[in-house]
Design a protein that fits this description.
The complex is a heterodimer of chains A (340) and B (263).
Chain A lengths: L3 E13 L4 H10 L3 E14 L4 E5 L6 H8 L7 E6 L8 H7 E5 L11 H11 L4 H15 L14 H13 L5 E5 L7 H18 L2 E5 L3 H7 L2 E6 L2 E7 H9 L1 E8 L4 H14 L6 E7 L2 E7 L5 H11 L2 E8 L2 H9 L5
Chain B lengths: L4 H13 L2 H25 L4 E2 L2 E2 H18 L3 H10 L3 H5 L5 H30 L10 H25 L7 H15 L11 H9 L7 H8 L5 H36 L2
Helix pairs in contact in B: 1-6, 2-3, 2-6, 3-6, 3-10, 4-7, 6-7, 7-8, 7-10, 7-11
Classes of the chains: A alpha/beta (340), B mainly alpha (263).
Chain lengths: 340, 263
């Protein structure tokens, strides 16, 4: 049985062209001119219980809008959406009981109170009995050692600690599905790893379905078996992560800043690299910003170290940066037919 | 309902965290009481009774009015419009709670902390420092209930203004307008008896007087019969119910703006 069923789902936003001032606001109450923005344009997918699905795409792709429809905050313009057999926006309170949500950008905890108070309040709100509550808190304590934070005010927590507490809170009532919207945004590598292992553990232990939106492809690689890529309100890819993995797993971008850079050296660099490695070996060259040249390398075909040492040996390189491929590049590659 | 009690407890605790704020509110209130004392002293001069109130009654009315004013000042309109504007409301929409009841209980917590930290000290000061005599009578018994009803009315008005945040980004203008209307038309600033007679008739038809005038009359002139007080409280109950339901309907309408047009 599927847990989430979405069929031809769409969402248009009617955006009010607001008038100014208090009197304008009053007039906007009754009438106004609107423009329509199509945020989601007829998407379909099914999600089974226990899956971890990475829902990714560039900014403004329609990710958050879909999440908000699944959580019952937004009402779809068209199509079918069912979570656990019910329509989310018609059964908001009932649905809230079976799902947990973390909006990475803002906390659901009580800012001015000690951490433990937030958990107690949520315990009451979700009517979690004391035994389950204790068991949950113990489990989290073992996973991440939260108990030292209990007495601390939420506003004094670091971003990473706060996120761990937020995730704890979202699993408190043992929901069937948890939506994690950018749970690792702005966090350092070690805390990211911790958060990933916690999510994985909870999914394994309780068979909780997890829908994860993120900009960090590392999250997706570490957690998801399945990935849905969305752009401009449409689904570009829905399937096994392994196929996509090759796309962003192997690619690295080498950013080069070369001494006395001019049109001639750029041309030279281009020619020499093409001559030595070439497109057929998975190398593309682009000039993205002033003084920087981007060399994108498919590591499966050409090792990054080869390219780097070749460039270093032939040019006076002032600065080097190595980047993992960005979400935007993945989407561009999907458009270019990389997934066939 | 039981699951909302921790919410009241939480806001009460937040109040305790920021206890220094009370100190300044109390100091501010002492200044206000002094100004009011000398103002009304000079208004009365040698006159014993103006508009049916003695100086003692008028000052008790105004002084206690300020105490209730601070008691009911929970800033619900500011918080709610902020939460809507910043999208924090999404956190509530994904929880099995009713936003209005949630806020009611959150404000109840603030009410209790205001009562403890500000209203009771002010009342003690009125009696101890300004030597105001509180007459006795059956009205005093009804007073706490009347204040509770006043709280419900005041909350619904604040909630209503807060919900305007769905439509307008500049709710503060509306908030201040509401504040002024309530303070003047409710009798919090000047006893209603001091208004022109025609205006009094209009003001008695509006919900504002049910916030301050009704409970204050129960303290300033407590020795009137139940036949005077009970209808006044019936009017309070009427407004409490009407405004609570009205605000609820307004929310249901307004939240569609978010749910259809997006945050």
């Amino acid at each position: 049985m599927t847990l989430i069923h979405i069929e031809n789902l769409s969402k248009d936003f009617k955006i009010l062209n607001r008038r100014e001032g208090l009197s304008g606001a009053f007039r906007d109450l009754f009438s106004g001119s609107y423009r329509t923005v199509e945020a989601v344009k007829g998407i379909s997918f099914d999600i089974d219980p226990g899956e971890i699905v990475g829902y990714i795409g560039p900014n403004g792709a329609g990710k958050s809008t879909t999440i908000k429809m699944m959580t019952g905050i937004l009402k779809p313009t068209g199509g079918v959406i069912e979570v656990n057999g019910r329509v989310p926006y018609d059964n908001r309170i009932k649905q809230a009981q079976i799902m947990g949500v973390v909006f990475g950008q803002r906390t659901q905890l009580w800012w001015d109170l000690p951490v433990i108070e937030s958990f107690r309040i949520l315990q009451e709100i979700y009517k979690v009995d004391q035994k389950t509550f204790d068991r949950h808190m113990n489990m989290f304590n073992e996973l991440v050692g939260l108990s030292t934070l209990y007495g601390q005010q939420v506003r004094t927590l670091s971003l990473g600690q706060r996120m761990l507490c937020d995730i704890t809170a979202s699993f408190l009532h043992n929901p069937q599905v948890v939506f994690l919207d950018e749970p690792t945004i702005g966090l350092d590598v070690s805390i990211k790893a911790k958060i990933r292992s916690v999510i994985k553990e909870l999914n394994r232990e309780r068979n909780t379905t997890i829908i994860l939106t993120t900009h960090d492809l590392g999250d997706v690689e570490a957690l998801c078996q399945r990935i849905i890529i969305i752009d401009k309100g449409k689904i570009l890819y829905d399937g096994d992560i392994k196929k996509v993995n090759a796309l962003f797993g192997a690619y690295r971008t080498l950013k080069l800043q070369i001494n006395d850079f001019n049109e001639r050296t750029r041309q030279l660099l281009n020619d020499r690299l093409c001559e030595r490695f070439g497109l057929q070996n998975g190398i593309t060259i682009a000039e993205t910003e002033e003084f920087w040249t981007d060399v994108t390398i498919d590591q499966e075909r050409t090792p990054l170290s080869d390219v780097l040492s070749f460039v270093m040996g032939n040019f006076t390189v002032e600065d080097v940066r190595i980047l993992e491929i960005s979400m935007e590049n993945v989407v561009r590659k999907v458009y270019d037919g990389a997934l066939g | 309902m039981r699951s909302y009690i921790p919410i009241a407890r939480a806001t009460f605790m937040v109040g305790l965290v920021y206890r220094f704020g009370f100190f300044f509110t109390i100091v501010g209130n002492i200044v206000y009481l002094c100004v009011a004392y000398f103002l009304w002293k000079s208004i009365y001069g040698d006159t014993l009774v103006i508009n049916g109130l003695t100086f003692n009654q008028a000052f008790l009315y105004v002084g206690l009015g300020s105490a209730i004013f601070i008691l009911l000042k929970t800033y619900a309109d500011w918080y709610i419009s902020y939460e809507i504007r910043e999208g924090v409301i999404a956190n509530y929409l994904v929880k099995p709670i009713d936003y209005q009841i949630y806020n009611l209980f959150a404000n109840l917590g603030s009410l209790l902390i205001n009562l403890m930290a500000i209203t009771i000290p002010t009342a003690i000061m009125l009696i101890g420092v300004f030597h105001v005599r509180v007459p006795s009578g059956p009205g005093l018994v009804l007073f706490p209930f009347s204040v509770l009803l006043a709280f419900l009315i005041s909350f619904s008005m604040d909630y209503f203004v807060g919900i305007m945040g769905f439509y307008s980004e500049s709710v503060w203008g509306l908030s201040i307008t509401k504040e002024i209307i309530v303070t003047v038309f409710s009798g919090a600033l000047i006893p209603l008896q001091f208004f022109p007679e025609q205006m009094q008739k209009v003001l008695y038809l509006l919900p504002f007087q049910a916030i301050y005038h009704t409970p204050l009359m129960m303290v300033t002139k407590p020795n009137q019969g139940m036949d005077v007080f009970l209808p006044m409280m019936a009017v309070q109950i009427f407004w409490a119910v009407v405004l609570f339901i009205g605000a609820r309907l307004f929310y249901n309408q307004a939240v569609k703006v978010l749910r259809i047009a997006g945050g």
